[in-house]
Design brief:
Strand content: 15-25%
Bound molecules: phosphoenolpyruvate
Strand order of the largest sheet: 1-2-3-4-5-6-7-8
CATH topology: TIM Barrel
Distance between the termini: 13 Å
Structural class: alpha/beta
CATH superfamily: Aldolase class I
CATH architecture: Alpha-Beta Barrel
Number of domains: 1
Helix content: 40-55%
Length: 249
């Protein structure tokens, strides 16, 4: 059985003033049957970890460098994230692929570094609207999966997040059939590459405009093991609604 996971991605949002929101999250006490993760900006990682520890909520980074250390101004290594309390790191988010020109090779190198340092890599894949309209979705996702996921992946150190770019922060959500088709495809690809045991143990998250009002139906789709949540994770009340839907999925 795969453990369900609800992961919040605060992106570049939050200063010390957001500690109240963390305080509210720390009161949630989600069911121990599911995993909850918050990925705040790196500046809040340590404080968030301390605030959320008693609630059993993990923290993670939003990116890491592929190298262990060195002359890389502004970057953060996987070891540094781990040292600050992270258990997970989001890699290859479409905003990083777009804003920083991250290729599949770059994402795979970062994922290797994350796994080597005991972090679980949440590798994001997803198509643009043009690619979907041109009926290229599965080709694009297939290429991103083969290029971004390292050979050393297991059900413990890898999570895959399907995030259609056109659904992120837009309020637009694919149909449940569209989500199911892509998740079934990702599962089949993972089983083909890693064998049934590993392929079936990797958790698959859906991300893109998940909110309390649509979470339950999305969690009912086959091979959806949880969600990667952007905007709705910023408010404890909204994130809590998504967590409640996951607990009953
Ligand atoms: C995201 O950026 O990973 C995301 C899913 O954002 P939102 O939930 O705001 O669409």
């Amino acid at each position: 059985m795969r453990r369900k996971l609800a992961a919040g991605n605060w992106k570049m949002n939050g200063t010390g003033a957001a500690l109240g929101e963390l305080q509210a999250l720390s009161q949630l006490h989600p069911s121990p049957r599911i995993d909850i993760l918050l990925c705040p900006p790196a500046t809040l990682l340590h404080r968030a970890g301390q605030a959320l520890e008693s609630a059993g909520i993990s923290v993670g980074g939003q990116d890491c460098h592929a190298q262990a250390s060195g002359a890389h101004t502004g970057d953060i290594s996987a070891e540094m994230l781990k040292d600050a309390g992270a258990e997970y790191v989001i890699l290859g988010h479409s905003e990083r692929r777009q804003d920083h020109g991250e290729s599949d090779d770059a994402v795979r190198a970062k994922a290797r570094a994350a796994m080597d340092n005991g972090l679980t890599a949440i590798i994001c894949v997803g198509e643009s609207l043009e690619q979907r309209e041109a009926a290229n979705t599965l080709d694009i996702i297939g290429g991103q999966l083969s290029g971004s996921i390292p050979d050393q992946s297991t059900g413990e150190n890898l999570v895959v997040a399907y995030e259609p770019i056109w659904a992120i922060g837009t309020g637009k959500v694919p149909t449940l059939d569209q989500i199911g088709d892509v998740h079934d495809f990702i599962r089949a690809r993972l089983e083909r590459r890693f064998g049934e045991g590993v392929g079936r143990s990797v958790r698959l998250l859906y991300g893109g405009s998940v909110k309390p009002s649509n979470a339950a139906e999305i969690f009912g789709v086959s091979n959806v093991d949880g969600a990667l949540v952007g905007g709705a994770s910023l408010k404890a009340a909204d994130f809590s609604g998504i967590i409640t839907a996951l607990e009953s999925a």
